[in-house]
Structure formats: C-alpha cells, structure tokens
Amino acid sequence: MVARGDRVAIATVVDSKRSAPRPLGSRLAVSSSGEMAGSVSGGCVESDVYLRAEEVLAGGPPQLIQYGISDDDAFDVGLPCGGEIEVFVQMLDPEEMDRIASNDEGGRRLSVTTSLNGDAAGAKSYGEGEGHSSAVRADETTFVEHFAPPPVLMIFGAVDTGQALCRMAKQAGFTTIVSDARPKFATPERLPDADELIIGWPAMAYDAHEIDDATYVVVLTHDPRFDEPALGPALRSDAVYIGALGSRRAQATRRERLLNAGYTEDEIARIRGPLGLDIGAVTPAETAVSILAEMLAVRSGREGGPLSLKSGRITVPG
What's the chain's Rg over C-alpha atoms? Predict the structure, then answer.
C-alpha cells in the first residue's frame, strides 16, 4: 500500500473486555485505493471499521470507537462472541513506522505511546520498550505498545524433540538456537528449523548469545556433563524460562549435584522439570507441544489448563 504511494488509515484494538476475538494491538489497514489488510475482530466489525477508516482518509480526525454487546447497534456490528473492544482509527504515522523498523533492524526495544482523546488524539511519544512485544491500555487517554526483537529459545541437545520444538517455536515467533558438542548430531540436515547451530559446549553458546529477560533455555541432553554447564549460567541470569528434561528422580539427582556445585535452593528452584505441561506427551512432537505450551504460559503469566474451566476473560481465536 505505502510503497505504491497510497494513503493509509490504521485501525488498532486499544482495549477489550471479556472474550475479545483479537488481542490488543491487532491492526486493520485501509488504503486510499480501497484495499484492506489485517483484522481487528475476525470479521465481526470490519465493515464498520472500514467506513470509519474512509472518513479518516477523507481528512476527518482520529476516531475511538467502541463495539460490543452493550452497543445499541450490536446486532449489526456487535461481537457475537460476547466481548467488547475499542478501536482507534488514525492515519498511518510514517515516523512511527520508521522508528519501529530502525529499532527492529538494530535489535533494540521501543515503546510507542499513542494519545487517544482530545486535541492530542493520534500524537505519539517514544521510549525504551520491555523484554517482549506487548500492548496495554495504560489509562483512559493513552495506549502503549512495546516492540522488541523476537524472544530467543536456546535449546541444548540436538535431539528429535529439539527439532520438533524448533519448528513449532519458530511458528510462535521465537528465534531458535541449538547447541550440542556432538558434530554428528548438530547438523542442518537433522535440525533444518534451527536459526543457528552451535557445535560445542554450552559456554560457547552463552559467549555468542548473552542471556536476557527475553531468553528461554531448554535442556534436552540427559547427560550431566552437558546438562549442568547448560543450566548453571541460566540459573544466575535474567532468563525468563529454564526447563530441563528428566524424570522426578533425575531432577532430584541433578538438584543434589547443583547444590554440591554451590547453587542455592532458590536458584535451582527456577528449573522447570519434569519439563512441559501435563498433556500425556509421548512422541517428540507431542513433547515439543508440551514444552512450548509451558513456555507460552510462562510468558503470559498463566498456569495452563483447559479454557473451559477458566472463569476469567479469554482471547477467542477468530
């Protein structure tokens, strides 16, 4: 759209209540030539948002619109899932796009705060972002989006489960790094979905990639000679997730070794093991689903479990 010289209006989900069909920050772009890209509701309110975007494209001011079951026109443009959303429609801000692209290329974090009301509606301010991309309605007048490089998943152990986890984690937006000291295991043919392969001991991987609060560490090796050098630096870092494969008995034995090596009870307690959510996983692919599900639950501050048993708000896929 922009590349052709079209003017573009952007509609963004800036607030939601109950079962919202799209998360905060979801966008729908409408061009002056009539094209659409993206979604704010999975089809429930797009037709009305399109009309509002046309008004903005015609020179109108930014608009903050509420949709949901409490609206008088709920039958026409409401959300059949029972949720409510607020959508902010404004002209595309070239400076915002340039800043996001520049920070992404440089691997930096960026926060963008948008004013939603009054004469300042649509105005932007910028700052340092958080460890992962997210969006939040800060208050009645402002919406904040955090843009960050993809989270990094460091997998120690070039095994079948590691390849399955690489494939699924990449689809979920992670950069995947696999480390193994065995050259015959750590090959592009065995791990085609790894973004990077590091053949060597864990210290080499940590030298190449400093751990931060957007780093997830998964140890799949079953070998103390490799497990503990892989776990040690992570336990004393800002890593958001540390998991290690192994039965409860193996976990207990590892705990004793780590205690003897000088790690504290609190540090060792950061290890998630047995690894993953309880879904009855058996195959490498099933185990990878279990691990990735636990990682995503940790990132979202959730415990996991069936949505059907939850009483709080959920995000409903469109």
Answer: 23
